[in-house]
Amino acid sequence: MKIGLRIKVIFKFFGEENMNIRIFLMAFILFIFVVPNKSYSETIGVISLHPKWSMPTKHEGYWKEIGKLHIFKKKFQNKCGRGPWRCSGDKTIVGHKANDLRLVDFTLHKGGVLVESPHCAWSKSRKYDLAVDEALKQCVLPRIERLKRRGAKKIVVLGKSLGANMAIRAGVIFDGLSGIVAMAPGHVPGGEFMSSNFAGSVSKAKEAVSEGKGGDILELQDINQGVHKTLSIKASAYLSFFSPEGKAVMIKNTAKLPSELPFLWIVGSSDIITEKGIGPKIFAKAPKNPKSKYIEVQGGHGDVGENGSEKIIEWLKGL
User: What DSSP line would sit under 202-215, residue for residue?
Assistant: First the structure.
């Protein structure tokens, strides 16, 4: 039904002779049908933190802002659907098929949520080149400001795996956030698995720091989904990520989250962190908040993007 016909029908119902009612109805109809009506999602901005050894999705708007749109189009957008590259429906976001966080970014974007995906210190190419808090300040703070420029009224930090761990830490060190989403959280310093694999490297890094050599580059160990890697890394940066006394201990950071900050933990039911009961224990340390939620979806560590994206959108809708 066209706007003009709607007006005639409503005027006839109320009586065209009453000028005040006619004026009121005209203003109301213009507001509903003509003035752009922003949804909840257009006021929400999400900063999406990639997993360990991964890379962020590539966003057309950001590359345009930094004056490198031609690189985005040639290197990423032109390869949509070819090789490892997958794209959002409008081809403005490009992500690697191995990173299921891209599916979340695509879903959020399609739903009208404003998304930023920074390149952080734990990426494939950077290899922990900054300690935890410095890394978060470097990759998150500029994106908070960019989301505000884009019109976001609420800022949520979301992460996958080690990125989820870092999202929780972001909730501790940054004020003014509206939510934290920990998707398939991983990396548990002090836990049985990490202790058995990294005790020697942690001890070596601690010795260097105690001798005032925290900036020295050492050969230390890392592992990701069963794949081992030797890192050339500053001792102090390694400790911040891998020590049980460092800044990446989820159970300690979760307990420090502000009580007014909603917290979503979403994980696969067959993820090892779920099966061993570690996840529920970490989530239980969070201050009580009526909007906080623990969700398990079908699958393992790499399935939350496919099976949980809509649940993340639903949770954001309630903020």
Answer: HHHHHHHHHTT-TT
